[in-house]
Write a structure and sequence with these properties.
The complex is a heterodimer of chains A (779) and B (118).
Chain A: H1 7-20, H2 26-41, E1 45-49, H3 59-66, E2 70-72, E3 94-102, E4 105-114, H4 122-167, H5 171-186, E5 188-197, E6 202-209, H6 217-228, E7 232-236, E8 244-253, E9 256-266, H7 275-325, H8 331-343, E10 352-359, E11 364-371, H9 376-388, H10 393-403, H11 409-416, E12 418-420, H12 427-434, E13 438-440, H13 446-452, H14 468-474, E14 481-487, E15 492-499, H15 509-586, H16 594-618, E16 626-628, H17 630-647, E17 649-656, E18 663-665, H18 667-684, E19 688-700, E20 703-711, H19 719-722, H20 740-750, E21 754-760, E22 764-772
Parallel strand pairs in A: 17-19
Antiparallel strand pairs in A: 1-4, 2-3, 3-4, 5-6, 5-9, 7-8, 8-9, 10-11, 10-15, 11-12, 13-14, 14-15, 16-18, 19-20, 20-22, 21-22
Helix pairs in contact in A: 1-2, 1-4, 2-4, 4-5, 4-7, 5-7, 7-10, 7-15, 8-10, 8-15, 15-16, 17-18, 18-20
Chain B: E1 3-7, H1 11-23, E2 27-31, H2 34-44, E3 48-51, H3 60-70, E4 76-80, H4 86-90, E5 96-99, H5 105-114
Parallel strand pairs in B: 1-2, 1-3, 3-4, 4-5
The chains are: A alpha+beta (779), B alpha/beta (118).
Chain lengths: 779, 118
C-alpha cells in the first residue's frame, strides 16, 4: 500500500512531474509515465486510451461522459452495465480507469490493471488521481502547444503577406500573392478574387486559381457577400445537389465594399472549412483590402500621371502650332498650315482634314481647302517619308508647306462644295448651327443612321464624308469622321472635317477634345487672316473706287466740254460741208477744183462722224430697257457685218445654248456692243481666220448670269496697249478710232455687266461679257 | 409752189438752207430767231417750218410751243446740232427731228415726206 506521503509514492510523483516538464515528444512522455505507474503500483498493464478509442455504450464511455474515475477491486465490483466486446480485454480482477480531462476538454483515459485481487487504498487512489491529472496536463499542454504553433505559422504567413503586399506595386502581382497565401492558410483547392467594377456592384474576376467557374453559385455567393458585407461559409454535400464547400469574405476599404475573396474545396480531411478558416479569411480580407485599394489607387494615379504627361505633350504641340500660325497673316498659308498640323503625325495625326468656311452673305458653307493623300498608296508614301523627318510640329508644318503645293484631287473636290446653311440634314451645316463637334462613328442603330444621312446629297465627294449616305452605303463598316466648329470671335466661322480613311484608326472623344482645343486657336488665326484679307480687299476696292471716281469726274467734265464743243463745231461744219457740196455740184465734172471740193466734203463727213462718237459716248442712254434674248441681238449684229464675214475667209462658229435666260437691256446699245466686238474681231484677223461666238448661261455665287464670248484668231492686242483699251480717246497706232471699246465698256457696265479680255498676242483675243440674267417671273 | 420758213440764228446756215431748198423748187423765207419767226408765220403763211433749237432770245422749243398755239397742222421740222433732244421733243409737238449734218439729203427727204411730195 502506497500513499502520497509514502516515500515510493512521493518518488513516483516526483519522477512524473519531472518528466512532464522535460522536452520530450508527447508519445515518449506518456509511455514513460505509464511505465512509472506500472512499476510504482506493481501493476500488470498500464494504458493510455485515446478519446477516439472510447466506444459509446460501454463502461469507458461512461467514465468519459461522467468524468469520474472507475475503481474495480475486491471491495468494488464492476458496476452493472453493458460491457462491449472491445472492452472485454480490459476486464481483470482489479483495475482503474481515470478520465484525463479538465473542464470542457477530454483527452482520453488512463487505465491501470492487476491480474491478482487487491484493494485500492484511499492513498493509492489520491496518488493515481494526481498522476492522471499530471498526464492530462501533459496532453493539454501538448495540444495547446500544437495549436499555438499552427497559429504562429498562420500569423507568420499573414505577416509575410502583409509585408510583401506593401512592397508590391503591380495590382496583378498583389492579387496573385493574396490568393496564393490564402490558399495555403485555409488549405483550399482554389480561390477567386473579384473586384467591383464601376459603382453598380458589378464584380469582375481579377485573379483566380483553380476552376472556380464550375460552380454556378460562386458568383451569386460573391455578390451576396459584397452586398451584406459579411463573410460566409457554405457547405453542402449530398447526392442530388452538387457538392459545395465555399468560404467567401468581402474586401472592405474605407467603409466601402471593393470586392470579394473566395476559397473553395478544403484540401485536408475533413473537407469542410471550419470556423477558424472563416475567421482567418476574414482577417486576411480585412488586412488586404487596404493594400488592394492602395495599389488600385496607385494604378489610377499612374494612369493619371500618364494622362497628364500626354496632355502636356499635346499642349506643347498646340503651343508649337500656335507659334507657327502666328508667323503669318496670309490666309491661304494659315489655312494650309492648320490643316497640315491636323494631319501630320507629330501634330494631331488625322489622315485627312477639310475646311469649310461660312459665307454669311450667301448663307452657305464654302469648301475652302483640304489636305490629305488622295489614296492609300500616297498615304503610305507620305507617312514613311514623315517618319524619317524629325523636328517639332511647327518646323515640320513649315517644311511641308514649302515642299508641297496643294494640287490634290481632294482639295479640288472640296473647293467645289457649297452647302446651304439652313440644310440641317447635313452634318456640316449642323455643326455650324449647333456650334458643337460631331463624332460620327459607324452608326449602330437605325436612328443614328438617319441623323447622319444627308438626303440632299451635298457633294463632299463620295469618299469624303458628308455625302454620307453614299459613302456609308458603300462601305459602312469602316468609315468614321468627325466635325468640329471653327470659332472666330464669338461665332462659328467654319467647320473642320477630319477622318482616318486610310489607317481606319477610330476617332476617340479624346481626339475630338484635342482637335477642338487646336481649332480654337486655328479659328482665331483664320479669322484674323480673313479680316486681314478682307481689309486688303476693301483697301484695294477703295483704291479702285477712288481711281474710278477721279476718272468719272474727269470723264464728266470732259463729256460736258466735248458736248458743247461738238455742238459749236457742228454748225460751222454744216455750212462748210453744205457749201462744199454746192460748189462741187456747180463745177463741171472735169474741173480740177473738183478734187478740192470732194476732199472738203469727205473730211467734213469724217469730222461729223467723230463728233457723233463723242456725243454718243457722253450721252446717257435713254431708251427704255426691254427683256431681251441675247442670241437674237447677236444675230441682228451679225447680219450687219455678215457682208464682211461672207466676203473673206472668216469661219464663223456659233455656240449658243438652247436655254438662255433673258437679259434686261437696251437693244440698240447692246446691238452696238456686239457689232463693235464682231467688227473689231474681223478687222484684227484681216479678213482671214476663225470667229467663235458663244452664248451660254452660267452660275456665279449661286446666281444666274449669261456669258457672251467673242473669240478671234487675229493679231491680238499689244500688251503695252492692253491697259488702255477701255480708255476713251486712246488710239492705237494702227489708226483705228479709240472709242469703240470704251463705248462697249460703258454700255456693258450700265447693264450691270462685266467685260473681260483674254489676250494672246499674235494668236487672238477673247472678249468675254457677263450679264445678270433676268430673274424668272414668279408663277 | 410750196413755201418753207427756215429759222436759224446762223447766217451761213440760213443761206445754205435757202439756196438748197430753192434749188429743190421751194419758196424759202428766213428768220434769224424765234420772235422774227412768230412775226413771219401769219405774213408768209409757210407750208412748212425748219426750226433750230439753240437760238438767242426766243429758243426753238419755246418758238415751237407758241406757233402750235395757232397753227396745229403746220408741219414743223426741228433742226438741231443736239441729237439728244430728239426723243423728248418729237413726241409732243414737232413732226420730225433732223440732226444737223452737212449732207442735207435726210432733211430734204423729211421735208418731201411731210409735204407728201414723195
Amino acid at each position: 500500500m502506497i500513499s502520497v506521503l509514502h516515500p515510493d509514492g512521493y518518488d513516483l510523483l516526483k519522477k512524473t512531474i519531472e518528466l512532464s516538464s522535460a522536452s520530450l515528444p508527447i508519445g515518449t512522455k506518456l509511455e514513460r509515465m505509464l511505465e512509472f505507474a506500472k512499476e510504482g503500483f506493481q501493476s500488470d498493464r498500464s494504458l493510455y486510451l485515446q478519446p477516439e478509442a472510447v466506444v459509446k455504450g460501454g463502461f469507458l464511455s461512461r467514465v468519459a461522459e461522467r468524468r469520474e474515475p472507475l475503481w474495480v477491486d475486491e471491495a468494488f465490483p464492476l458496476p452493472e452495465g453493458e460491457v462491449l466486446a472491445e472492452e472485454r480485454d480490459l476486464l481483470c480482477p482489479a483495475f482503474a480507469c481515470l478520465p484525463l480531462s479538465e473542464e470542457a476538454s477530454f483527452h482520453g483515459i488512463f487505465y491501470l490493471g492487476f491480474t491478482r485481487n487487491r484493494r485500492f487504498s484511499p492513498g493509492e487512489m489520491d496518488l493515481l488521481l494526481l498522476l492522471a491529472k499530471e498526464m492530462g496536463n501533459v496532453l493539454r499542454n501538448d495540444r495547446l502547444h500544437r495549436a499555438a504553433e499552427k497559429t504562429a505559422s498562420e500569423l507568420n504567413a499573414l505577416h509575410q503577406m502583409g509585408k510583401t503586399s506593401s512592397s508590391i506595386l503591380e495590382l496583378e502581382e498583389l492579387l496573385e500573392l493574396i490568393v496564393n497565401t490564402g490558399l495555403k492558410i485555409v488549405k483550399a483547392r482554389g480561390g477567386v478574387l473579384r473586384v467591383e467594377q464601376g459603382r453598380h456592384g458589378e464584380l469582375a474576376v481579377r485573379f483566380s486559381i483553380g476552376e472556380y467557374h464550375r460552380s454556378p453559385l460562386d458568383e451569386r455567393i460573391a455578390r451576396r457577400v459584397l452586398f451584406s458585407r459579411t463573410p460566409v461559409s457554405l457547405f453542402r454535400s449530398g447526392k442530388e445537389k452538387p457538392f459545395i464547400s465555399v468560404l467567401c469574405a468581402p474586401l472592405i476599404s474605407k467603409d466601402r465594399g471593393i470586392g470579394t475573396l473566395t476559397f473553395y474545396d478544403k484540401q485536408s480531411d475533413p473537407s469542410r472549412f471550419d470556423e477558424r478558416d472563416l475567421q482567418l479569411l476574414a482577417t486576411m480580407a480585412n488586412q488586404m483590402s487596404c493594400a488592394i485599394e492602395n495599389t488600385m489607387t496607385r494604378g489610377q494615379i499612374a494612369s493619371m500621371a500618364e494622362d497628364h504627361e500626354r496632355r502636356v505633350g499635346q499642349l506643347s504641340t498646340l503651343w508649337e502650332l500656335n507659334k507657327a500660325l502666328l508667323t503669318t497673316v496670309h490666309f491661304e498659308r494659315i489655312v494650309h498650315m492648320t490643316l497640315t498640323a491636323i494631319t501630320i503625325g507629330d501634330g494631331l495625326g488625322f489622315n485627312r482634314a477639310m475646311l469649310f468656311l461660312v459665307n454669311e452673305k450667301d448663307h452657305l458653307l464654302q469648301g475652302t481647302m483640304a489636305v490629305g493623300p488622295d489614296n492609300a498608296e500616297e498615304a503610305g508614301k507620305i507617312w514613311s517619308s514623315l517618319s524619317q523627318k524629325k523636328g517639332n510640329p511647327s518646323e515640320l508644318a513649315a517644311q511641308i508647306l514649302s515642299s508641297t503645293d496643294n494640287h490634290s484631287l481632294l482639295n479640288r473636290i472640296v473647293k467645289e462644295i457649297q452647302i446651304p446653311l439652313g440644310h440641317d440634314q447635313c452634318i456640316l451645316s449642323r455643326t455650324v448651327l449647333a456650334g458643337k463637334p460631331f463624332n460620327i462613328r459607324v452608326p449602330h442603330d437605325a436612328e443614328e443612321w438617319l441623323q447622319t444621312r444627308c438626303e440632299r446629297g451635298c457633294h463632299i465627294g463620295s469618299e469624303v464624308g458628308c455625302y454620307v449616305s453614299e459613302h456609308l452605303s458603300r462601305n459602312p463598316n469602316v468609315y468614321a469622321f468627325a466635325t468640329v466648329p471653327l470659332w472666330g470671335k464669338g461665332k462659328v466661322i467654319g467647320v473642320i472635317l477630319v477622318d482616318n480613311l486610310y489607317n481606319q484608326k477610330p476617332i476617340t472623344d479624346e481626339d475630338i477634345h484635342y482637335l477642338t482645343m487646336f481649332s480654337g486657336q486655328a479659328g482665331l488665326a483664320i479669322e484674323n487672316a480673313l479680316l486681314y484679307r478682307n481689309l486688303n480687299e476693301v483697301h484695294q476696292q477703295l483704291k479702285e473706287a477712288q481711281t474710278f471716281l477721279v476718272h468719272q469726274e474727269k470723264m464728266a467734265a470732259l463729256g460736258e466740254l466735248s458736248t458743247s464743243v461738238a455742238h459749236e463745231i457742228r454748225n460751222p461744219l454744216v455750212s462748210i460741208g453744205g457749201f462744199a457740196r454746192r460748189l462741187d455740184r456747180s463745177l463741171p465734172d472735169d474741173a480740177a477744183e473738183k478734187r478740192y471740193t470732194r476732199t472738203i466734203v469727205k473730211e467734213v463727213e469724217r469730222v461729223e462722224k467723230i463728233l457723233s462718237h463723242v456725243l454718243e459716248y457722253t450721252h446717257e442712254g435713254r431708251t427704255p430697257r426691254k427683256e431681251l434674248d441675247l442670241r437674237e441681238v447677236m444675230e441682228e449684229s451679225l447680219s450687219m457685218v455678215s457682208d464682211g464675214l461672207s466676203n473673206g475667209e472668216i469661219e464663223l462658229v456659233k455656240g449658243f445654248s438652247e436655254e438662255i435666260p433673258r437679259v434686261k437691256g437696251d437693244p440698240y446699245q447692246l446691238k452696238q456692243v456686239f457689232f463693235n466686238l464682231v467688227n473689231n474681231a474681223c478687222e484684227s484677223m484681216g479678213g482671214k481666220g476663225k470667229l467663235s461666238i458663244r452664248i451660254h448661261p452660267i452660275l456665279k455665287n449661286g446666281f444666274p448670269f449669261i456669258r457672251v464670248e467673242v473669240e478671234d484668231t487675229g493679231v491680238g492686242i499689244d500688251p503695252e496697249n492692253l491697259h488702255h483699251i477701255f480708255n476713251p480717246f486712246y488710239t492705237t497706232k494702227d489708226n483705228r478710232l479709240g472709242l469703240g471699246l470704251p463705248i462697249i465698256h460703258k454700255i456693258v457696265t450700265s447693264h450691270q455687266g462685266q467685260i473681260e479680255v483674254n489676250n494672246h498676242p499674235g494668236r487672238g483675243v477673247t472678249f468675254s461679257l457677263t450679264f445678270p440674267a433676268q430673274e424668272e417671273k414668279q408663277r | 409752189m410750196m413755201k418753207i420758213l427756215v429759222v436759224d440764228d446762223e447766217e451761213s446756215i440760213r443761206l445754205l438752207y435757202k439756196e438748197e431748198l430753192e434749188e429743190e423748187g421751194f419758196v424759202v423765207e428766213v428768220a434769224k430767231d424765234g420772235l422774227e419767226a412768230l412775226e413771219q408765220v401769219p405774213l408768209f403763211r409757210p407750208d412748212l417750218i425748219t426750226l433750230d433749237i439753240k437760238m438767242p432770245g426766243l429758243n426753238g422749243i419755246e418758238t415751237l410751243r407758241r406757233i402750235r398755239e395757232t397753227e396745229r397742222q403746220l408741219p414743223i421740222v426741228m433742226c438741231s446740232a443736239y441729237g439728244e433732244y430728239k426723243q423728248d421733243l418729237t413726241t409732243w409737238a414737232s413732226d420730225a427731228y433732223v440732226v444737223k449734218c452737212a449732207d442735207l439729203t435726210e432733211l430734204k427727204n423729211t421735208i418731201r415726206r411731210l409735204l407728201r411730195l414723195l
